[in-house]
Amino acid sequence: MSADLTHTHIEDVVRDSWGRVLAILMSHLRDMELAEDVLQDALIAALASWPRSGVPHVPEAWLLTTAKRKAIDRLRHSQMHNSKAAEIEMMAKINHQDQELEKDSPFAEFKNEQLSLIFTCCHPALSQAARIALTLKAVGGLATNEIARCLMLEETTVAQRIVRAKRKIKAANIPYRVPAREQWRERLQSVLWVIYFIFNEGYTATKGPQLSRADLCLQAIQLGSALNHLIRDEPEVAGLCALMLLHNARRDARCTQDNDLVQLKDQDRTLWNKKSIEQATQLLIGALTKGALGPYQLQAAISAVHANASDFANTDWVEITALYDRLYQLTPTPVVRLNAIVAMSYASDAALALLALNVLESAGELSEYQYLYVVKADLLERTTQNEAAKASLTRAIQLASNNVERTFLEKKLLQLSNK
Q1: Which CATH class, in words, describes the domain spanning 329-419?
Q2: What is the Cα–Cα distance from 302 to 293, expressed in whole angstroms?
Q3: 125: how many CB neighbours lie within 10 A of its CB?
């Protein structure tokens, strides 16, 4: 294995562990910048050590131990604490965490700490934009450029938001904890949004050789499950959990063994995880019976219609169109409208859907959105406008950042060119 490949593998392992280890460090250091700095020091140490010794059996334990030592060194040589007693107490707390990590399956020990980190990052003192960027960075372990692509913003803008958010948390002495029950409502929507954003980055990775990242999908599902356990009477939390489980149930069918993307209509539905679909269906039914319909429940209901269809041709597109119309009433965004147009194209007529898409495109809000052009190319092809379809595919390829998606679109463009 080359040094570059070794470093890439190590960085992937560290990234998988980043949010969990950072949550533990934050729980004791109460300083996000210090926690990130010592964890970055641990990454540098891993890059120097692991190529020789191999990746540890429990990398989180190794990283936390190393980061702890780096934190102790920094504390000893800083003026952060006014008394030796405070410094000793800080080191004792961090030392205690070593014992918690010496297990084969350490994730269970992290869930509450990660929820605390998420709620801290989603504090109402921070702007909505800052909450999202900071949580994706701290908990999801996403790089700044990945967050920028997800949010369709400049990288410098995202970086500035993250820095300002960290300073705000420190200056305002925002507590690191899951808030009291009466404070949940003011932060819950941001928390749900961020968890789903982490899942979506896992489901279709912003970049890289794979279509999806199972680690991020699993992390988001586990965080959602922990939140649902904490807030049992909130139907939108259950709705989000159901939505993620339903999507994740189809993840293994989205690519061939050769890493080629497989569209929904061509997927082998025997590969879908029936157990996850059943679990999600029960969660969704329980949420819907509470009578407080929300966007996540509606999205889960749409996904459930897909999951329970015997095949693509027998999908109830009329029901899906109606659900999207209801969703648009609650969240009138251009992306929801785009998805509604896709459903309408199968429920009624592709030509009518194309007219609706042209109206949506003319508004300009999705001019840099890859999937607008993917949908447009499909509708144009279905209405035998192949030359125009090729132009839309070309634009989609220009905007694609995931290698698997780009390769699929390039093959599609070649097929159209050969017609």
Answers
A1: mainly alpha
A2: 13
A3: 12
List % helix, strand, coil for the chain (3-state, nearest 5): 75, 0, 25
Among 346, 404, 345, 344, CA closest to 370: 404
**Cα–Cα distance for residue pair 381/395, rounded to 1 Å:** 15
Mean pLDDT, the chain, rounded, equals: 86
Count the residues in the chain: 419
CB atoms within 10 A of CB 416: 16
Tokens for 162, please give them.
């993250």
pTM of the full structure? 0.77
Q: Would you put residue 262 in left (φ > 0), alpha (ψ -120 to 50) or beta?
A: beta
Angstrom distance (rounded) from CA 416 to CA 388: 10
Could you tell me which residues come within 8 angstroms of residue 8 by beta carbon, excluding any fewer than 6 positions away?
none
Report domain extents, the chain: 1-107, 329-419
CB-CB contact of 343 with 317 (8 Å) = yes
Alpha helices in 122-261 (DSSP H): 128-138, 144-151, 155-171, 185-203, 214-230, 235-249
Among residues 326, 273, 263, 317, which one has the least CA distance to residue 299?
326
SS3 category, 311: coil
8-state DSSP, 64 = H
| pLDDT tens string 296-341 | 999 999 999 999 999 999 999 999 999 999 999 999 999 999 999 9
Give the Cβ contact number of residue 95 at 10 Å.
14
Kindly state the tokens that stand for 321.
Answer: 């169109």
Are the beta carbons of 63 and 35 closer than 8 angstroms? no
Contact 195, 223 (CB under 8 A): yes
Please state, in angstroms and rounded to a whole number, the distance separating the CA atoms of residues 23 and 176: 10
Distance CA 13, CA 6 (A): 11
Integer Cα distance of 49 and 32 in angstroms? 25
Q: Which two tokens stand for residue 399?
A: 């905007």
- pLDDT, tens digit, 9 for 90 and up, residues 347-384: 999 999 999 999 999 999 999 999 999 999 999 999 99
DSSP category for residue 367:
T
Residue 261, beta-bridge partner list:
255
Residue pLDDT, tens place only, 188-208? 888 898 889 889 988 998 877
Read off the amino acid at residue 12.
D
Residue 233 CB coordination number (10 Å)? 8
